[in-house]
């Protein structure tokens, strides 16, 4: 179990680092959106590259931030129901939900999106719009984001199993794990 908990800590550290970088994308997309609006309405200048960059960044925030949200328990849950159960039962709900729903869905998205993303990359796919950006980088972000979510799901699964087997304690306020 010690080895698995070490793996969990490494995954958590990776997720935390990527999550903290992703937070800066929120500021960047806000500045880009404001700049784009000023240029369009103030100077009658518009660029497809600016518009596409906005939705690329917005997509990256969600794709790269999903694992961070899972780590910090900031995702949508059924706490209205599960909050009435004991911590042990909540941990079991998390284990079952992770094994039956989160991991199969995330792995399925990786499996289905990888060929699509690789075809885009190998073909150096570009936007069909004049002045648009390359499409392959954002398409590669889809399996990457779900790979990070899969890793964090594995980390959360390790922590819940460690809790259920008496190796860790869950902190009640955040349901995060401490040794």
Automatic annotation (TrEMBL):
<keyword id="KW-0997">Cell inner membrane</keyword>
<keyword id="KW-1133">Transmembrane helix</keyword>
<feature type="transmembrane region" description="Helical">
    <location>
        <begin position="91"/>
        <end position="116"/>
    </location>
</feature>
<protein>
    <submittedName>
        <fullName>C4-dicarboxylate ABC transporter</fullName>
    </submittedName>
</protein>
<keyword id="KW-0472">Membrane</keyword>
<keyword id="KW-0813">Transport</keyword>
<feature type="transmembrane region" description="Helical">
    <location>
        <begin position="53"/>
        <end position="70"/>
    </location>
</feature>
<feature type="domain" description="Tripartite ATP-independent periplasmic transporters DctQ component">
    <location>
        <begin position="31"/>
        <end position="161"/>
    </location>
</feature>
<feature type="transmembrane region" description="Helical">
    <location>
        <begin position="136"/>
        <end position="154"/>
    </location>
</feature>
<comment type="similarity">
    <text>Belongs to the TRAP transporter small permease family.</text>
</comment>
<keyword id="KW-0812">Transmembrane</keyword>
<keyword id="KW-1003">Cell membrane</keyword>
<dbReference type="InterPro" id="IPR055348">
    <property type="entry name" value="DctQ"/>
</dbReference>
<dbReference type="Pfam" id="PF04290">
    <property type="entry name" value="DctQ"/>
</dbReference>
<dbReference type="GO" id="GO:0005886">
    <property type="term" value="C:plasma membrane"/>
</dbReference>
<feature type="transmembrane region" description="Helical">
    <location>
        <begin position="21"/>
        <end position="41"/>
    </location>
</feature>
<dbReference type="InterPro" id="IPR007387">
    <property type="entry name" value="TRAP_DctQ"/>
</dbReference>
């Amino acid at each position: 179990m010690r080895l698995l908990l070490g793996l969990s800590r490494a995954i958590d550290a990776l997720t935390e680092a990527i999550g903290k970088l992703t937070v800066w994308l929120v500021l960047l997309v806000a500045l880009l959106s404001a700049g784009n609006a000023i240029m369009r309405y103030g100077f009658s200048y518009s660029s497809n590259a600016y518009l596409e960059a906005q939705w690329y960044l917005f997509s990256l925030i969600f794709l790269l931030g999903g694992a961070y949200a899972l780590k910090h328990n900031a995702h949508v849950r059924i706490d209205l129901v599960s909050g009435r159960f004991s911590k042990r039962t909540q941990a079991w709900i998390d284990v079952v939900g992770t094994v039956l729903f989160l991991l199969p869905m995330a792995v399925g998205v990786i499996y289905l999106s990888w060929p699509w993303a690789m075809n885009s990359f190998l073909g150096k796919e570009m936007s069909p719009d004049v002045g648009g950006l390359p499409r392959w980088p954002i398409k590669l972000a889809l399996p990457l984001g779900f790979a990070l979510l899969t890793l964090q799901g594995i980390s959360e699964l390790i922590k819940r199993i460690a809790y259920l087997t008496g190796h860790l304690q869950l902190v009640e306020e955040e349901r995060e794990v401490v040794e």
